[in-house]
Amino acid sequence: MNPLEALEQHYPEIIARMGKRFSSHEFILELAHEHQGLYVKALAQYADHKAPFQAVHGQLAKALAKFDTLVYYIGEEPSTNIFGRSSDAAVWGKR
Description:
By secondary structure, this protein is an alpha+beta fold. It has one domain. Helices cover about 45% and strands about 25% of the residues. The protein has five helices and three strands, in the order H-H-E-H-H-H-E-E. The chain has helices spanning about 5-10, 10-15, 25-35, 35-45, 50-65; strands spanning about 20-25, 70-80, 85-95. Helix 3 crosses helix 4. The mean pLDDT is about 95.
C-alpha cells in the first residue's frame, strides 16, 4: 500500500476529531500531525514534482469525498494553507 492509501485508512479517526465544519486545509494539518511518518513518505514520492505539497494535499483533499457517509461537501472558501498563505480550500461538514 502506498503512503497516500495508508493515510486514507486514518481518515475516519481524523474526521471524528474535526469540528462540525472544517476545511481541507484543517483536515490535512491534523492528518499530517497525527501520522507524520506516512505524510513525509507521501511527500517524498513527489520530491521531484514542481510543487510536492500541492500535489499531495490535492490528492488528500479529493480523497475526503470517498468518505461520504462521514462528511459532505459544502463548497469552497478562502483558508490559510500549510505555508500560511490564503488560498481556496474545500469546506466539509460532518454527517
